[in-house]
Structure formats: C-alpha cells, structure tokens
Amino acid sequence: MRITYDKKANALYIYLLQIPVLKTFGIIKKTEGDWPIHFDYTKDNKLFGIEILESKQYFSEKTLEKIIRKDKSAPIDMVNDLRSFKPEDEVEKECVRKVCDVLIDKRVQ
What gap in Å lies between CA 53 and CA 34, rounded to an integer? Predict the structure, then answer.
C-alpha cells in the first residue's frame, strides 16, 4: 500500500496494488463511490485504489503531514481521523467505513 497527498489539489490517493503508474490508465475498469470518495477497480474487479478529494475535511493537518513524510504510522492516524469524522449522509458514512476497513486490512497484512 502506498499513500500520496497533493496539497495543492487537496487530494489523497491510496494505491492498493503494486502496478506501475504508467499502466494505471489501462487497468482501471470502473470507479464507484460518491463524491468526494472514489474506489477504482481493475478490469478483473480488484480494488486498485481509493481517491479522496477535499481531504482536509476528513484528515487532520498532522495526519496529512505524516502522509507527505511517508511516515509508516500515517494509516493508523487516518483510521482514527475517519472514525471521529461525522458523515452527512448514509452514502458518505458507508464510503468512510469502507476506507477504514481497507486501511485496517492492509495494515494487518
């Protein structure tokens, strides 16, 4: 798992598969999820990555700085931030829960 954060765009991406970046546009089959959280899948329906736009509404500055520094504890902070986030509706609540589940599963592996 690799996590990137673009401060200027305020966008975060969680790469779940080890696929060269140059090939990513050819492997994404579909994107699911409601704005601003999107789940990208490969042609064989494997979750490739998660894009989170408007990231500052979900994560603290401390957590985002850890992501930029590639601190290995960043995913734990991300889960903690997401657990304290109060979603506005059921769709957002489900997306946040799914991101937490993915981060927890990947940290265990």
Answer: 11
- Both tokens of residue 12? 């975060």
**CB under 8 Å to 76, separation ≥6 — which residues?**
107
Segment 61-105, tens digit of pLDDT: 999 999 999 999 999 999 999 999 998 889 889 999 999 999 998
**How many CB atoms sit inside 10 A of residue 27's CB?**
16
* Both structure tokens of 9: 């765009």
Give the per-residue SS3 of 4-21: EEECCCCEEEEECCCCCH
C-alpha to C-alpha distances, 64 to 30, 31, 36, 70, 83, nearest whole angstrom: 27, 24, 17, 10, 16
Residue 23 has pLDDT above 70, yes or no: no
